[in-house]
């Protein structure tokens, strides 16, 4: 049985409402660093592989788990957040300041549209997510911890649950609604599993019956 623990990074400066220079270099807050430490402490045995997004906040979150299990290899995969707004336009802005641009992007509902240099289309993004699932399925490691981002993790869940046949405007709108309805808290996520010779992924819900993410995040690796 292959088990993959998908974990969103700890609280970032942008999550706390601060301006960020660019999407890739946003740091963690002190609270985010503490969350990363708690994730590392939740494992009761070493994962066979640790995977992290190249974005700084995910790398730093993964660092605590890497330090706890120094013999476990760390790999950086292209599982970074969806950069759908032109990075240069967003430099030194807050989430609140970008809100109108965000609403305009999603109102367009064009999966092939790129906002500008350095931005990716929704179609590009979903291709990255599907490539990640394909790479996971082929990887020989059975217990994998993955440190990524809220939108990327939600896109994984959406592909598995909704199984869209075509990535068109309707699918794009459906994913946006799915993302808003199913926010992934910092250092929470999903648990994926796949049996040998099975061509489908199974996914556990991100929130436990008590309303917290601990039941998912701690199983099957956790205490």
Descriptive notes:
The chain is an alpha/beta fold and 223 residues long. It has a single domain (2-207), classed as Phosphoglycerate mutase-like (Rossmann fold). 39% of the residues lie in helices and 13% in strands. It is built from 8 helices and 6 strands, in the order βαβαβαααβααββα. The protein has helices at 30-42, 56-68, 87-90, 99-108, 122-138, 150-162, 169-181, 214-217; strands at residues 2-8, 49-52, 74-76, 143-148, 189-194, 202-204. A 6-stranded mixed beta sheet has the order 3-2-4-1-5-6. The chain is globular. It starts with a strand and ends in a 6-residue tail after the last helix.
- How many structural domains? 1
Q: Any guess at the CATH architecture?
A: 3-Layer(aba) Sandwich
Strand order of the largest sheet: 3-2-4-1-5-6
Arithmetic mean of pLDDT: 89
Write the element-wise H/E pattern from the N-terminal end onward.
EHEHEHHHEHHEEH
Question: Beta fraction of the residues?
Answer: 5-15%
CATH class: Alpha Beta
Total of helices: 8
General shape:
globular
Category from helices, strands and their pairing: alpha/beta
Helix content: 25-40%
Q: What do we call the CATH homologous superfamily? A: Phosphoglycerate mutase-like
- Biggest β-sheet: count, sense, barrel? 6 strands, mixed
Distance between the termini: 19 Å
Organism: Pseudomonas fluorescens
GO cellular component, one term: cytoplasm
Protein name: Phosphoglycerate kinase
InterPro entries: His_Pase_superF_clade-1, His_PPase_superfam, PG/BPGM_mutase_AS, PGM_Phosphatase
């Amino acid at each position: 049985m292959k088990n993959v623990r998908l974990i969103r990074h700890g609280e970032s400066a942008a999550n706390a409402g601060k301006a960020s220079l660019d999407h890739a270099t946003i740091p963690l807050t002190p609270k985010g660093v503490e969350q990363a430490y708690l994730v590392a402490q939740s494992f009761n045995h070493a994962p066979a592989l640790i995977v992290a997004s190249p974005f700084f906040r995910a790398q730093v979150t993964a660092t605590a788990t890497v330090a706890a299990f120094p013999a476990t290899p760390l790999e950086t995969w292209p599982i970074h957040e969806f950069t759908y707004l032109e990075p240069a336009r967003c430099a030194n802005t807050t989430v609140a300041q970008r809100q109108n641009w965000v609403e305009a992007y999603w109102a367009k509902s064009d999966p092939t549209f790129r906002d500008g240099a350095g931005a990716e289309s929704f179609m590009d993004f979903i291709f990255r997510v599907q490539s990640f699932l394909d790479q996971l399925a082929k990887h020989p490691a059975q217990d994998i911890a993955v440190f990524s981002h809220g939108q990327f993790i939600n896109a994984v869940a959406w592909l598995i649950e909704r199984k869209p046949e075509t990535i068109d405007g309707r699918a794009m709108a459906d994913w946006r609604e799915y993302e808003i309805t199913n926010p992934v808290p910092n250092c929470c996520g999903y648990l994926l599993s796949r049996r040998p010779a099975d061509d489908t992924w199974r996914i556990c819900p991100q929130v436990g019956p008590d309303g917290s993410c601990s039941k998912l995040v701690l199983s099957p690796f956790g205490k």
